[in-house]
Amino acid sequence: MIQHLQDTVTLHNGVQMPGLGLGVFKVEEGTELVEAVRTAIAHGYRSIDTAAIYGNESGVGEGIRQAMQDNGIPRDRLFVTSKVWNADLGYEATLSAYEASLEKLGLDYLDLYLIHWPVAGKYKDAWRALEELYKEGRVKAIGVSNFQIHHLEDLMEDAEIKPMVNQVEFHPRLTQKELLRFTTQHGIQLEAWSPLMQGELLQEPALVELAAKYGKSVAQVILRWDLQHGVVTIPKSTKEHRIIENASLFDFELSREDMERIDGLNRNLRVGPDPDNFDF
Known about the structure:
Elements: E1 8-10, E2 16-18, E3 22-23, H1 31-42, E4 47-49, H2 57-71, E5 79-84, H3 91-105, E6 110-115, H4 123-135, E7 139-145, H5 149-158, E8 165-169, H6 177-185, E9 189-193, H7 205-214, H8 218-228, E10 232-233, H9 240-246, H10 256-263
Parallel strand pairs: 3-4, 4-5, 5-6, 6-7, 7-8, 8-9, 9-10
Antiparallel strand pairs: 1-2
């Protein structure tokens, strides 16, 4: 289990992926974004997650460069993720999209590149492009996002390389137990986006009660729940005190009974689109 902010999980290809990172969904280009990335890295974060559709890869790259210079951190100590958007899910288009992301980020390679959504009839061609990038050593690991079990089964029927990561919406009201079981069985690392349900869970009475019991915030309890399930997580914040708080997860452990209590909050509720009914 992850016991420290810079602890990692080992992907099925041997790559080490930090168990906790910073997400930047909906953070616009500008000083706030650059400072959030700089702050996170200064406080020990080593994983930054962005995507082409977020429109903020340039700011993420600038924050990374400034943080590396300020803190003397080499590039190979960081883990940077981006994602190919739906409009670019073709073999050649995906290859071009990867180059565009690298250029905006100002990086020579990505640590993880994901297919953002399972667009029917398109993700297999995009996956061939990711496999090519991986075989050429242009990216350290490849994976998918928002894939359900049937999407993964369909992809793996023809894939030469199995996805290393599946990043999905995952929180106490959407526990996706069958998907977690499936990915674990197949050696695919599950990663949580929107782990706090975009803040909707912060007033949940059962979680407020548990936070008081452990002397922690509700957010810390939820993120600790993620880690104890073996799920990598990338909470988003631009505020320094929240960035620090979100990483202060390693001085307590939820009991088995409390883990099960949080599991019991599941309602199969999403704040994001349904991967099977997303209007692409």
